[in-house]
Structures are given as structure tokens and as C-alpha cells.
Amino acid sequence: MLAFASRRLVVAGAVTRAGTRGALPRASRPKYLASTMERATFASLPEHTVVGMPALSPTMTHGNVAVWHKKEGDEIGPGDALCDIETDKATMAFEAQDEGAVAKILVEEGTSDIAVGSPIMVIPAPPPLL
């Protein structure tokens, strides 16, 4: 992380004015830097929904993606099986609830120990009706 403080370039972890190693003092840090960068980074993306690992049972905390039935770019509709999710007790199909398409798969087939709610895929928002 780079920042300007007292007319000299300070690099986080470098020797500061007080002679100690470490990050910049709190007063010298730019406020809201991360949120500004986040907004600027994602401002050019179309509207989308990030789909998290579903809780297929009340006690499920982690799961595994066994097989993807859809690929990136495939159209999906209500009831279509997106992937098979393994729990400690069973393997179940995770089905689509709405129409759309698979924009990006974030978790590879065979990935294990994924926490419930962790992002697994991205679905773009449907185009507005005219």
C-alpha cells in the first residue's frame, strides 16, 4: 500500500517517521479507500446475482460440489439441475429457481468443504421488459 504523508512516499511496512516498522498511523490513512476502489472496480459490470452454497438441510454447515450439470453460458430455467451437492449425509441436486443463464462458475467440480453461503456461481440479471 502506498500513501503520501508529510511530502514523502511511505510504503506500508517501511520505516516510518518515528523510526518503527509498520503501517501508517490511522490519521494518515485515506478514508474509504477500499470501498471506493470496490465501487470503481465493479461499476462496469452488468447487474448480476452471486449464488451462494445452499443449505440443503437445517444442520448443513459445509458441502461439496460433486458435479456441475450446467456450463458457463448455458441457459437455465426453473427446476433445472445446476449441480450436485454432497453433504455429510446425502448427495442432492441444486435446482434453479428462475430463468436466466450461468455467467460464471466460481467453484470447480470436486471442490470440498465449501461453507454455506460462500459464492459458487454468478447469474446475470434478466434484461428489463419493454
TrEMBL record:
Q: Name one GO biological process term.
A: pyruvate decarboxylation to acetyl-CoA
Molecular functions per Gene Ontology = transferase activity
Q: Which domain of life is it from?
A: Eukaryota
Q: Which SUPFAM superfamilies match?
A: Single hybrid motif (SSF51230)
User: Which source organism?
Assistant: Nannochloropsis gaditana
Q: Which GO terms describe its cellular component?
A: pyruvate dehydrogenase complex
Indicate the segments forming the Lipoyl-binding domain, all copies. 48-124
A Pfam match is: Biotin_lipoyl
Record keywords: Lipoyl, Transferase, Transit peptide
Name it.
Dihydrolipoamide s-acetyltransferase
